[in-house]
Amino acid sequence: MAHTCVLIPGDGIGPEVARAARKVVDASGADVTWVEHLAGASAVEQGHDSVLPKATVDAIREHGVALKGPCTTPIGGGYTSVNVALRKKLDLYGAVRPVRNLDGVKTRFDDVDIVVVRENTEGLYSGIENEITDGVVTSLKVATERACSRISEFAFQYARERDRRKITVFHKANIMKLSDGMFINSARAISESYPDIEYDERIIDAGCMRLVQDPEDFDIILCENLYGDVLSDLCAGLVGGLGCTPGANHGIEQSVFEAVHGSAPDIAGKGIANPLALIMSSVMMLNHLHRLHQDENARDAAVRIREAYDACLKDGETTGDLGGSLSTDGFADALVKRMG
Fold first, then answer.
1. Active site residue 227
2. Domain spans of the chain, in order of start
3. Catalytic residue status for 110
4. What is the 3-state composition of the chain as percent helix, strand, coil, each rounded to the nearest 5?
5. What is the full DSSP assignment across 45-107?
6. Catalytic-labelled residue, pool 31, 58, 103, 205
7. Mind listing the pLDDT tens digit for each residue in 271-308?
């Protein structure tokens, strides 16, 4: 089955890692046609008045799926974050950040396999701030029952479809009794329809302590926007960092898969950036196409890519940040050779 996917190269190291990811997907046997569109500082440099041009958003709406490299938001000029703008325009309410140990990547812990599911549209990231008087500013945390319920339903559906065993909600309802209270009440209500999945709650500070003591105690972590942002990076640190973790943002009709690390302009153009995170995100994209369209070829391509990078990492065929000697393109070529 043929699929058309939007490719957003992004900025900094984005074009390099996007080129590598595209090479790997094309060699995997996946039937994917790419359409490239701009976002970030590169869009402004090319004459667009926005970091997220309308043509890019329209393309994602048309094709339903995008693979996005890291994007830079220009400093000054009042530009908003590309990621925030994408989530708002496409209502990408469910962020998924899986983290797992990879053979060949030395970390403090073994057998880490956690998925952070993050509500993506509200909370403190709603961006509603006011200066009450000189030196006094308030930030408004927004919570709606609709958003709390749908991200909870999303998390439990995700768990059931992937045979996950447990969902733990991180919250601070002991202090934010209304907003976080609504979140856990919604999660509790949804959990009653999923008796096959264990349900747990942790106050976020105690939960974070437990997370770095025994990460194997967690399977899926469900949380609101700000907590999810922080926990995603914390969990990434358990398995080797953001360069080893993919990400996805799901809405009702569109999904955007992305490397969650930054655009690293200091190493752009040097050929040393690690494309692993974006390649892992492309595997998530192919698995999504399989589930959406029952496309066995997409699933098989995803398996081939995952087995290839697992083998490369185990044998030390990596970029310099993971202790190897391969360039960005060299790592992609190593994966293509493994699949061949």
1. no
2. 1-100+241-340, 108-238
3. no
4. 45, 20, 35
5. HTT-SSSS-HHHHHHHHHHSEEEE---PPPSSTTPPPHHHHHHHHHT--EEEEEEE--TT---
6. 205
7. 999 999 999 999 999 999 999 999 999 999 999 999 99
- Give mean pLDDT, residues 54-81: 90
| pLDDT of 77 | 66
Segment (H or E) for 325:
none
The DSSP H or E segment spanning 246 is strand 246-250
Query: What are the tokens at 315?
Result: 């044998």
| Mean pLDDT, the chain, whole residue set | 96
DSSP 3-state of 253 = coil
Q: Is 80 exceeded by the pLDDT of residue 196?
A: yes
CATH code given to domain 1-100+241-340: 3.40.718.10
Cα–Cα distances (Å) from 270 to 9, 20, 159, 234, 267, in that order, read 16, 14, 40, 28, 6
| Span between the terminal Cα atoms of the chain, in Å | 21
Catalytic residue of the set 11, 172, 227, 295: 172
- For residue 125, indicate whether it is catalytic: yes
Based on the residue annotation, tell me whether 329 is a catalytic residue of this protein.
no
CA-to-CA dists, residue 20 to 105, 205, 330, 331, angstroms: 20, 39, 9, 8
What architecture (CATH level 2) is domain 108-238?
Answer: 3-Layer(aba) Sandwich (3.40)
Tell me if residue 124 falls in helix, strand or coil: strand
Tokens representing 275 are 């494309």
Q: How far is CA 46 from the centre of its chain?
A: 27
- In contact, 46 and 38? CB cutoff 8 Å: yes
Annotated catalytic residue within 11, 79, 93, 125: 125
Q: How far is CA 172 from the centre of its chain?
A: 23
Its pTM stands at 0.96
